[in-house]
Amino acid sequence: QAAAGGGRTALRACGVHNVCRLLSRRALGFFARDAGVALRKNLGLLRKIMCQESTKFKNVWTTHSASPIAYERGRIYMDNYQCCITSIAQQPRLIYQKSKCAKSEKIEDALLLECPLGEMLPSPSDYKASLIVLTVQNWLLRLSADSGEVLEKVYLAGSCCKFFRYLSWDTPQEVMIVKSAQNKLPAAARQAGIQQTVLFYLAVFQVLPLSFIGMLEINKKIFGNSVTDVAVSNGILIVMYSMGLVRLYNFKAILEQFMEQPVDLGQEFNWNGQVGVVGKFPFGLPCNIKITDTPPLLFEASSLENAFQIGGYPWHYIITPNKKKHKGVFHICSLKDNALAKNGIQEMKCCSLEPDWIYFHPDMSGRIIHVGPNLIKVLKLKEVKNHADQMEIAEDFTIVANRENCVNNSVTVTASGRVVKKRFTLLDDDPEQETFKIVDYEDELDLLSTVAVTQIGADGRAHLDFHCNEHGILLKSIPLKESWDVTYSHEVYFDKDLVLHIEQKPNRRFSCYVYQMVCDTAKDDD
């Protein structure tokens, strides 16, 4: 009763007389005593400061490496994750440096693991960020993000699988999938007529505390001969086929229906006559989920190169018709009845070496981002007037590359008066014209970021622009000091007050450029 009385008092105090509205407002941080309000105000201030004309981004650190460079939440990893550098300080500084590992300990993949809020965890180390890594010898390790110390280790490969290679999230920060490389028989075995029916193995883990849910195999006898790849995301098993077919299954239902026997890490277990400890060498993990029949199909679609995305509200999906002549054409259809949305065929009609790309906006607004060489279109789903059951695709806003100074005349006249006709026209993504290369979203500051590049001769220049995520208005432009070669591979991270550019050059040469926000009214070359 006291609690109910206190709740009614809170409702009256804020002028809200509905519990659902109160909970909704609380989730949005409407109350001054909530921790979320302070964070929201601070991020709002940071966004305003960042977009001021006097605020600059200064290149504070540059490094080069012969091995890949990775970035995760303010940490730069080098030397196959043996070296960790923080990028949060005024200048990046070393967090830890481990001794060089042997080839047999090489890390294949990694995921950053962060502590869930509001949960009691068994170990004090669980409350700090850690890195889950997969080694070439099939060890799954949980490392301290602050020291690189091994906190937990699990041996994966038992009698069933020897080559685990990929880590991914089913549910971010909750359920993790470890996937094997595709099983392929040696040439001699194939010539002898031996059949390989198991294509992939998937090991499923709950994280923090780390616990084993089960392992299953993707078998030709169940899913068909033409399976090329599998993935798990948000409780859905996605199976891809060589002819462009994509099939979706309920992954949670598969785990529940075909689980033979639950097992725990550290448990002594008898598996097909082999006795060992689960997760320890050499026993590894048992394949305790056996799919004996084709699971119920949730959905299937045919798309060029298996390109398939789900998003929006109500649910829609994006595919490209499964013919090469339709490359660059995107169909947006209702997941409910496969109906094509009004204006649901999107095509840039651009002539370029690199194709345009499309995806659902990561801000959970249900919008769609379509990126071409010189145009970014943000699209939205809305009801067709007088037809509430039909949806149409409408343009929310566009961002256009700066090509004001670009002149592409097919006929020119020389100083002597001779008329010269060009035998070719420039591509839409010609390096000499400003071209969009990267589009990303910074969720904490609610900013859409774009990287546009112009290359004159051997010297390429890039700038990172911040746009209002709601209306597309340009708020800030940051020139990148280093030259940008469009033939190299590039990654750009925008994380609050940090910009980080990772470049991969030929012969496995990597460079990392770190920019920090500085507020200085003085005009200088920095």
From TrEMBL:
Listed GO CC annotations: Cul4-RING E3 ubiquitin ligase complex
PANTHER family: DDB1- AND CUL4-ASSOCIATED FACTOR 17
Pfam families: DCAF17
Full protein name: DCA17 factor
Keyword set includes Membrane: yes
Keywords: Membrane, Transmembrane, Transmembrane helix
Example of a GO biological process term: protein ubiquitination
InterPro entries linked to this entry: DCAF17
Organism: Copsychus sechellarum
Source domain of life: Eukaryota
Transmembrane parts of this sequence: 198-218, 230-249
